[in-house]
Specification:
The complex is a heterodimer of chains A (915) and B (111). Chain A is of the alpha+beta class. Chain A has 26 helices and 25 strands. In chain A, a hairpin with an 8-residue loop joins strand 19 (681-684) and strand 20. In chain A, helix 5 (97-126) crosses helix 14. In chain B, strand 2 (62-68) and strand 3 form a beta hairpin. By secondary structure, chain B is of the alpha+beta class. The longest helix of chain B has 25 residues, at 82-106. A three-stranded antiparallel β-sheet of chain B has the order 1-3-2. In chain B, helix 1 (11-22) crosses helix 4 (82-106).
Amino acid sequence: MGLGRWRDLLTLRLRSLFRSSTVDRELDEELQYHIERQIELNVARGMNPIEARHAALLAMGGVEQHKEVCRDQRRLRVADNMIRDTRYGLRLLKRNPIFTTVAILSLALGVGANAAIFQLIDTIQLRSLPVSEPKTLAEVRADGPEAFGTYAGLNARATYPLWQIIRAHQDAFSAMFAWGDGGFLVGHGAEARGARGLWVSGDFFPVLGISPEQGRLIGPGDDHLGCGAGSAVISHAFWQAYFGGRAAAVGSVLTVFDQPFTVVGVTPASFTGLEVGETFDIALPVCSAELYDRRFNERDRWWLTIMGRLKPDWTIARANEHLRALSPGFVDATIPTGYDSGFVEGYRRLRFGVSPAGRGVSRLRDAFATPLSLLLGLTGLVLLITCGNLATLMLARASAREREIAVRVAVGASRARLASQMLIESLLVAAGGAALAVPVALLSERALVAFLSTSANPVNLNLTADWRLVTSVGAIATVAAVLSGLLPALRVSLVHPIVAMRQAARGLTLDRHRTRFQRGLVVAQTAVSLVLIFSALLFIQTFRNLSKVKTGFEPERTMAVFFLDRTSQGLTVEQKAAFQRQLTSEIGSVPGVAAAASSTHVPLGGDIFSHFFRVTGAADNERKASRVAYVSPGYFGTLMIPIRSGRDFVDRDDARSRPVMLVNESFVRSHLQGLKPIGATIRRLEESDFPETTYEIIGVVGNTKYADLRDEDCWCDAAVPMAPIAYIPLAQNPNPYAWAPVIIRSGTASAGLASTIAQRVERLNPAIVTQLIALKTRIRERLAGERMIAWLAGVFAILAMTIVAVGLYGIIAYLAVSRKNEIAIRLSLGSRRAQIVGLVLRENVWLMAAGLAIGLPLAVAAMSGARALLFGLTPTDVPTVVGATGLLAATGLLAGALPAWRAARIRPDQALRLD
Amino acid sequence: MSRPADLVQGTLDLLILKMLALEPLNGWAISQRLKQCSGDVLQVSDGSLYPALHKLEQQGWIGAEWRPSENNRRAKFYSLTRAGRQQLEKEAASWQRLSDAISLVVALPES
């Protein structure tokens, strides 16, 4: 009875299924043969041919009926079994609503969450760009010591001169292109609005292989120095939103940065740029950047990303070597002028390399890669627990049905049929769980994306309920259910019916061996749950710590006003300073605004601006780096930053008076090295647009957070809670860049403040677009990732605890039931009920203790890997360990308490009677 | 001639398997041979023969093959598989047990 038989059977069954007409004909032929032989026989016996035929047909009976019977027999075998099993399984599931609900719900939650996170990770990390042949795309990156100059855009890695020289002198790429991103200002005056923009070089679209949806796309002919305002390409989404999808959009004039561009084409809807999680509205040629920033092609303006297609026989490694070797030539030819020698040395040390770019670039990926992978690990654990639970539940049920199964086996049911019936039950649960998991997955995805988005950078990911989601959900659910259902199915088919019936009847003592697997599962579940609870507690505390961290200033009722305006390009430094003062005082005079000041840096926005200094008279003559903010008088008062000594800036501190500086305490501690702060002189080293200047310190202010809530690196030694910051009067900024944001503190009500401010600004200059954001909102948005993790880890922990509780309840109940007779005997022999409770709970305690003992080292080890995500805690935080263990132990004990209590209430006479 | 004995349910399978254990046969030949071997006592009705043959084939105890027969016409010949041989032994054994038991009861002395 081996493979040969199965193979023949399979061939037979397949033939019945797919070649039923042939099989029918054969049956026909067979019956006809029989009839003819019978006719021959009858004729040989002396009947005449007609009689013979008649008799033969009579003896045969209805030929069609036979065919029908045979046909039915064949079909019955294949489909009828399955239908019957399915109906039986459905009935069974309906009779046990609790089991069914728990099983389907836990499967849906575990699988749905997994599928959602997996799809998110897939979109952010794994999916290739919708361009032709993404595998051959590569990006040129510079590795080297800290660079300098100005950076614009989310992926600024090269300057325009570097782009030109690399393109001209490399051998590894068959074609190259460059691009940058930024915010564009579209429209005139009051109707102006912001749009997401892409700067693209002439070869961008051709090399990527993108064809226009309408018109044509930017090509090499559009990109040449001095092109001014020429062609523009818009995205499909922008075409719908701004032009209403009208065909006349192509060929019309679009005002960007107050210049007239001609729309020459529309990109297809599937192309949203090369940055995952971002979209673009308008694409302009790189040469048109001159209108945005006249110095776009200077050697210290970093705003481009260089990419290209490698030649067929060039690998990434080879191209990397090639560019590294050419790097000295590149940097020597593009050394920026007007910089201190320290900067130049740093620039010379730049080395260029090549990395794969088929998946585009992604700020999301870089920022959230670790948290998302961590989440995937967590949800994987939850799924494991769910499977374990399902297996336990099904095992328990199988044990309860042992008698019934034994009877069926004895009466002749084949083990294969029984096993397949149990498998079908698990598949039914899988189907229910999968169906429910799809909406769970969709909801989870929306929630995740909502967590990750901030008002400044909304996340744009194409997450739809496509077939990939459904397939992955279905696959995970099926595997989970089948695995959990397979075990009881196997066990069932191996047990001899007589053994089963004997054991089911006895229930006298506890058979440890049989429940070994179940107990092992519960221990494993407890261990995994401890990991989840521990991590949840750590992340929740991290989030709380970060929310409560002292920022050094008062964010309540504080808002920042940002300005978008390109018309300031032609003004002189003095004119800009004067208008900035006007802006600030105009906003400050709005009723409801208690204080207003401007600053080039708004705290906790993530952006960093720094200079290099030399401290006169310092013990070491090293150049020091410090974060910098150019602020107007009243800044410290507006943000309620204490002035520890000296004085604040006044209007007198402007471009004509001597350069002065305020520093924070961290600066004094790390850079001044014992010198008295007030009166010390600091020399700011030369940078392009910032000539060397010597400042005098006139005061010391309290420490504040600069860009991030976590500890900042100060470029001195280790990370410090607050970085050194140097404040310089805004009026003394030699290189004011458009309009610095204004920070305001409002009185009580801030409703309507935004529109009033916008009106006042418009009165001053209609070309300026304002945007208001509360500082508290900004701070909250910086914690988006941490909040997401804390929230989700918490949800998972609760889920895990519920599942473990249910599992423990199940097994303790089962164990108690199987010791029913023993307990009854003990009770009748005089044990007190409390002793019985203790007896049952002993089991519980052992299981929990084992689980906790295994889980604790696992939990600490797992969290050690995620150390960087924690804040204010270490992975071995003792209170958290105690808390997590206690929480889980309490849950487990509670879960076992109910069956223990029930066991103690057994009536000995009834229990012993029922056998 | 006495009425042909009604075959006990389930024994048809046993008889067919035994017939095919002797040599491969087609359906017509099986019914003829059965009649001959049993001395005309066992006559399978044609209506129950073919369903039984097909059931046995579906269960994998007999295999089938189209071959030319005596009169040079094509016919479906059945033969016993190895699994079928095992099944035959099992059924023969349980038939033996059954018939022994019946004989025992029938041979009880009446008072």
